[in-house]
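Input record (Table S2, row 494):
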Amino acid sequence: MPLTLQRPDLLLSSHYIDGHWCEAVGGSRYDIEDPAREQAFASVPDADARDAQAAVDAAHAALPAWRALPARDRSRILARWNTLLLEHRQDLGRLISREQGKPLAEAVGEVLYAASYVEWFAAEAVRAYGEVIPAPVDGRRMTAVREPVGVVAAITPWNFPAAMIARKIAPALAAGCTLVAKPAEDTPLTALALVALAEEAGVPAGVLNLVTASRANAAAVVDVWLRDMRVRKLTFTGSTPVGQHLARESATTLKKLSLELGGNAPFLVFEDADLDAAADGLMAAKFRNAGQTCVCPNRILVHEAVHDAFVERLVARVSALRVGPASDPQAQLGPLINRRAVEKVERHVRDAVAKGARIMAGGSPLPALGANFFQPTVLVDVDGRMELSCEETFGPVAAVSRFADEAQAVAEANATPYGLAAYFYTRDVRRIARLSAALEAGMIGINEGAISSEAAPFGGIKASGYGREGSRHGLDEYMHSKYLCQGELGPGQD
Ligand code: ADP
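Output record (adenosine-5'-diphosphate complex):
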């Protein structure tokens, strides 16, 4: 099926270095597949170390002028970029749906979410205040100013092809940094379109460089940036093993790091919860993007007194979900990203059933729709020995277990190396206070399943990484503080 865009020029086939749309130096290309049909529908350059080097040279050369630009001017460019993203939301949504698989309405929703970060950081750009410090001794003036860290390397995953990269580019540009970026190999087309609109908005040549590479070449590209002392910041969203590798390898050049890594979110339903609200919240949190989000509940813990009533509500909702390709306007759930993802979901379900879990809904692939489709699934009698309790399933499987009391629920919720998101439903205000303190996660949904917002600090603790995206803290990740101590001012001066 052809990809029809109102702006056909937003389907790009070259990558972007130093203001030029160009091929990889080595001339290689690789194909981009539609996960619904497993058919190649586009191709992009397959970069290697030489392209990565050219990108970082360009970003370094562009840095002095960009950081010297008044913050108000950088803010205006970001505001224009936001306007263009909103104006072209349908085209960008079509690109996301085609390369990533999510239904069009959800994809357009992602564009709005991506744009919200650009709007937010357009406003934050002009608020990078420093401080005046009361001097402890006479005759000195002590101040601290905030400066852009320098060249930023951004590496992003495929599950949100627009939002993950927008929320790195926007604060970096707002802070006065320049960037080299590599989108996930599965979903570079949305990122390229975003960059084309950034260029249209007035981002100067060299300030934002996007290099596309296949999985085989990803490490070769990123290694160049890891080794380069001029790259002062690495911002990454992806798996914990790759995040750990990047942290290790960036140690020699001591880069500032933001790592948004895997999760294993618990979702707790207490005996006093509004069960319909909890089931609705779980549907929103679990099945968005077919369960392929790092904040999606991976372990659903339900008090034994309400377990059956909750599962009944959940099964009714899950069974009503319509699965299909993004070309089906009624579809609520698309395919998984690739066969590897389907195999992992199948393995998790098989392992859970072998260890005693029961399937209450779904449980199988949907080959009639395509090799990457999997039924939305509910499992009960899940326990901590099963693979899906220990590892992120990253698919449409709601794994439910029972608990007897709050202490057990909290202990099980925290029994994971990860700490990205957690959710709980209860109407007891004291319990809300206790759990807000006890749960080990960077973000907590309290009677709420949809927690993401550009206005809030997004990020994790423990093996889910560090650094925060969005909110008033988001800009700090791309800035450092410089302390200025002026002496010889004479008595009475501070
Ligand atoms: P996923 O399993 O969801 O694909 P990954 O962490 O493997 O998550 O990938 C996230 C991003 O990290 C992608 O852009 C991918 O190309 C990149 N990546 C994967 N392996 C490496 C590596 N060894 N070095 C640098 N980047 C990598």
